[in-house]
Amino acid sequence: MNIADGRVLVPVFLIVSMILIGGIVVADSAVAVQENTTDRNRTETTTHRNPDDYSEDGDLDAVEGILANQLTARLGTGAIQLSEGEYEVANEYVGEEYQNRLEQYVDVAGETGGESYEEDFKATGEKQSQLSDAVREYRDTKAEYETARKAGNEKRARELARELEGLSDEIDTLGGSVREDYTVIEAATGADLSEPETAIKEVTDDIQAEQETVRKQQFEETELTVVPERTDISFLEPLVAVGELRRADGTPISNEEVRLDVGTHTERVTTDSAGRFPLEYRPTNESLTDNELTVQYVPETQSAYLGDKTTIDISIEQSEPTISLDNVSSEVAYREEVAVAGELTAEGVPVDGVTLAVIVDDERIGTVPVRNGVFDGSATLPASVEDGTQKLRVRLPFEEQALAGTADTTNVTIRETESQLSVTALADDTRTLVVNGTLDTVNGDGISGERVDIGIDGVTVSSVSTEAGGTFNDTVAVPETVDESEVTVSATYDGTGSNLEPTMDETVVTIDGGDTLSSTVWIAGGFGAIIAIGLLVWWIRRSDSTDSTLDDRSEEQGTVGTGVTASDQSSSAAPDTVEALLERTSKQLSSEQPDKAVQAVYAAVREALDSRTDEQAALTHWEFYHNYHSDTGVEDELLYEITARYERAAFGRDSVSSDEAANALEAARRLCNPDASAESEAGD
Predict the structure, then answer these.
(1) DSSP string covering 289-344, please?
(2) 590-604 as b/e, with b when 16 or more CB fall inside 10 Å?
């Protein structure tokens, strides 16, 4: 065990300690099986092994197996609860307690040296929770649809039918993905998830059957065909094709303007009397490895038509664009705007619908959009760029895409900004100090994300990072070498690696004398041991209590739990702020976690757009996209790109690339327009 790694030490120590005291509390030693009064077959799952059997040797391999079984059991019970229509309970089984068990599993698996299935358990739990939410939303929307239909409100009924169409597609995708994950987990753990897998299939099949009825009641199916002149395309040699849109009976949809989603972009075309239309499309951010281009007909919400899509076989060649900077800020300081303007073309052809990164001193500080070959925007300078003469780059951050990456560079002068610190401290009777303070500019602008060193009588005892608004706080111990009744507490900001001047502040605090320190330490040590044991017992009893509550609740609903060890608290955690989510995305990109980054991007977008359109907040990702429209259509295009990346990252078999995740982040920043001071990424 890595003693130096506090993150690993505490959970593992806690688990092993619980084994020595009496084992992880298990509500039922065997995994019970969901019972039904119908003819459903009774299938038993793998029985848990009692942790007490392994407590003498502290067998972490056994603990790892127990935790894996508990995670599997919770997944199984949640799936069966979902099939019974108990959506809240289904979510609880993959909620907070599931996450707690997963964290323990990760810590133990890190110590055993064996193969960990952390990502499989995590992804399956998240997708199963999303599936429960989507099924509940479908049922609620379906009830509203039936009410509108019976009342003769055809307009509202059709709107709801369109929402149901998107939900049914999402449920079908999620259900299939969860079942595939079950297969992986079964192979890894030896568990039997056949009954939960059947339950998930029944749920998705039932909803697809219901939606087929809705589809026939409200929509007329369509057929889209697109015939390209050639399959080898590039930005300079675009796709040129002739399309045709017809009803299911073969009659043309004539003389109508229709929306086509081509790849990650949106095109609008008008059909002629025969339902035909011309299509020209220049690829920009498509991967060079893409061999298919999807073209989808997207009807308006009130349209009586059902959408359709087709694919075109393609081969993409890369084109070399050029960035030309025309106007750039010559001198800026902290929180001032760095203005950039210029053109992006490829052999004179304007590039449209891409996003450029603005980089100062190798740090990305923001983005600017390109429209019809022109960009004109700005990004806010953060504190983390050093003062002096720095290189400013405007870059198209593409790799292995239809357009090659390119950049233009110039110099910019960064002025130093005066900063100031304020610090307060409060002593208690155990020789610890609670320290609070603020780092800001002389204009009162709080400075976040900067390191402040805390010292006592000239000895540095802690370093903290400033939070939003420039605030910081910490609890520190007075060094044993200090035996004065008064100490000087200092806060120091050295300004290293920033464009802010160094600053410091200090305050004097009265503390207890040092004469009784030795005896106090020994007494505290004794009480500390007692408290540690007490907390351990409390943790076990709490786990036992919450497990019993959830199992009792399950039994009251006519369902026997499948050996789950603890109950979840219903969690609907308040969403992170848009800036925090985008900040997390940057860190995940730096850590080479593109799928997680894209999911954080989408969460940020929903947080931002839900606040603008509250009535859209409960929609699934594709329904949210189809119902969100801007005046210019620019936001629609950005939202489509982000939604498509999110679906692939969250539910697809293949991961998104780091470049695709970076593009999604750039699109989100344009769409959300958060405070740029919170936007930074590690490198570019």
Answers:
(1) T--EEEEEEE--TT-SBPPEEEEEE-EEPPB--EEEEEEE-SEE-TT-EEEEEEEE
(2) eeebbbbbbbbbbbb
Question: What pLDDT sits at residue 413?
Answer: 96
How far apart, in Å, are the Cα atoms of 485 and each of 457, 508, 516? 12, 10, 12
What are the pLDDT digits (tens) for 198-220?
A: 999 999 999 999 999 999 999 99
**DSSP alpha helix (H) spans, 151-287:** 154-189, 194-218
Confirm if 370 and 353 have CB atoms less than 8 A apart: yes
Q: Quick check: 24 and 565 in contact, CB under 8 A?
A: yes
Crossing angle of helices 96-112 and 6-21, rounded to 10°: 100
| Of 256, 255, 243, 264, the residue nearest 308 (C-alpha) | 243
Burial of 298 (0-12, 13-18, 19+ CB in 10 A): middle
Q: Is 581 exposed, middle or buried (0-12, 13-18, 19+ CB in 10 A)?
A: buried
By the 10 Å C-beta count (0-12 exposed, 13-18 middle, 19+ buried), 77 is classed as buried
Q: Could you tell me the pTM of the whole model?
A: 0.57
Q: Beta strands 292-298 and 308-313: pairing type?
A: antiparallel
What is the crossing angle of helices 118-150 and 194-218, to 10°? 30
Task: Give the span between the Cα atoms of 559 and 102, in whole angstroms.
Answer: 24
Q: Long-range contacts for 480-486 (Cβ within 8 Å, ≥24 apart)?
A: 480/517, 482/456, 482/457, 482/514, 483/513, 483/514, 483/515, 483/517, 484/457, 484/511, 484/514, 485/510, 485/511, 485/512, 485/513, 486/510, 486/511
Residue ranges of alpha helices (H) inside 619-657 are: 621-627, 634-651
Q: How far apart are the first and last CA of the chain?
A: 36
Arithmetic mean of pLDDT, 24-50: 35
Q: Determine phi and psi for 384, rounding to 5 degrees.
A: -80, 0
CB atoms within 10 A of CB 4: 7
Question: Cα–chain-centroid distance for residue 470?
Answer: 26
Q: For residues 9 and 193, which has the higher predicted lDDT (pLDDT)?
A: 193
Nearest CA-CA partner of 539 in 109, 97, 125, 50? 97
Distance from C-alpha of 387 to C-alpha of 415, rounded to nearest angstrom: 5
Quickly tell me which residue has 């393609």 as its tokens: 314
pLDDT, mean of residues 67-83: 92
Query: How many whole angstroms separate alpha carbon 626 and alpha carbon 640?
Result: 9
CB 627 within 8 A of CB 301: yes
Task: Using the predicted structure, report yes or no on whether residue 19 has a pLDDT greater than 50.
Answer: no
| Residues above pLDDT 90, as percent of the chain | 55
Distance CA 600, CA 622 (A): 17
Q: Is 228 helix (H, G, I), strand (E, B) or coil?
A: strand
What's the pLDDT at 584?
67
